[in-house]
Design brief:
Layout lengths: L2 H4 L7 H26 L10 H25 L6 H25 L9 H12 L7 H17 L28 H18 L4 H6 L6 H11 L1 H23 L12 H12 L5 H17 L3 H5 L5 H16 L3
Helix pairs in contact: 2-3, 2-9, 2-10, 3-5, 3-7, 4-5, 5-7, 6-7, 11-12, 12-14
Length: about 325
């Protein structure tokens, strides 16, 4: 019987909650940067810089890794199927709520498969590996990380399969974390925790008590991470909206230098369709941000978009005219 199987049911490790709380703090920083750019308080291209993209990937990976480690820590023998399905159901319901809220607030950036959707689906994928030796989970993580680069195909570009991550394009979404390769981080969490626990890992983790106030605050956030995740963006938007009401809208930030040729051509074409100049300026800025978010900007600038990517640009432009801000 392993150390994990002998542990008391319901035991929580403060260090896991603290790690999840620290990931929340990092997420707050990234999302607040995004919101400040969306409201015009900082340059619109800031969230799309290479550093910020890397930051967002690190945050998502940390949440998924912790979710995988938590699956192992929650395992008991005999396996508590009710607790497992209840956990999956709660995350899936929260993911559905995020999709509905994004459809209402940002229909042009609909979240159909974001971080919560990925956690729920990857947790299902990880189920058999909870009963296998740790190399199986780490091997599956390696496969999950490499598959999108090995078998990417336009067959998976449709809305019914784009969530797999095996397609060649990304949807216009404010949060897109496809199952592959992102499930690799959760599977890695499963494998690493399975490796560590029989080798004194449980005792080592339990020694981190987090008695100081900052650690307790992080642990509190980690224990309520799902609720905090669901409410933090509405809270940020409410605060920024109140700031605009109180102090007026920020002065428009100048467009990035690399956007000037695209915006000029976009605005000429837009004005030719009898759209008002103000809407055209906003819509073309929106289209530029969207192409950067989809990692298609460099190909657009080099005029290397394929037919599918040109179709994405066309739909994005139409969405931006309808919802320019």
């Amino acid at each position: 019987m392993s150390a994990l199987d002998r542990s008391a049911p319901g035991q929580r490790l403060p260090v896991i909650d603290m790690a999840r709380g620290a990931a929340l703090i990092a997420m707050f920083g990234y999302h607040l940067t995004w919101d400040l750019a969306d409201f015009g308080f900082i340059a619109s291209q800031t969230p799309f810089s290479p550093g910020m993209r890397l930051f967002s990937h690190a945050i998502a990976s940390s949440f998924l890794f912790i979710a995988g480690a938590s699956l192992v820590l929650a395992r008991r023998m005999p396996f508590r199927w009710g607790a497992y399905w209840r956990r999956i159901g709660i995350v899936a319901a929260a993911a559905a709520a995020v999709s509905i809220a994004s459809w209402v607030a940002f229909p042009d950036g609909l979240i159909l498969f974001g971080i919560l959707h990925c956690i729920a689906a990857a947790s299902l994928l990880a189920l058999p590996f909870l009963f296998l030796p740790w190399p199986a989970a780490l091997g599956a993580a390696a496969v999950a990380a490499s598959l999108p680069f090995a078998v990417a195909s336009q067959t998976f570009d449709g809305p019914g399969l784009i969530w797999t991550g095996l397609g060649t394009v990304e949807p216009n979404s404010n949060d897109f974390r496809p199952l592959l390769p992102w499930a690799a981080a959760l599977l890695a969490g499963v494998g690493v925790m399975q490796f560590a626990l029989p080798r004194g890992g449980l005792a080592a983790l339990a020694r981190v008590e987090g008695a100081h106030a900052p650690a307790r605050a992080l642990a509190f956030g980690g224990r309520h991470s799902l609720l905090i995740y669901l409410v933090h963006q509405p809270a940020f938007f409410a605060a920024l909206t109140a700031a605009v009401w109180a102090f007026g809208p920020p002065s428009a930030a100048p467009p990035a230098p690399d956007e000037a040729p695209f915006r000029a051509g976009c605005e000429r074409q837009c004005l030719g369709s009898s759209t008002s100049p103000g809407v055209c300026v906003s819509a073309c800025g929106c289209a530029a941000r969207g192409m950067k978010r989809l990692n298609l900007w460099d190909k657009l600038v080099r005029n290397e978009l394929d037919a599918a990517e040109k179709s994405i640009l066309s739909h994005l432009a139409a969405d931006c005219v309808a919802h320019p801000n």
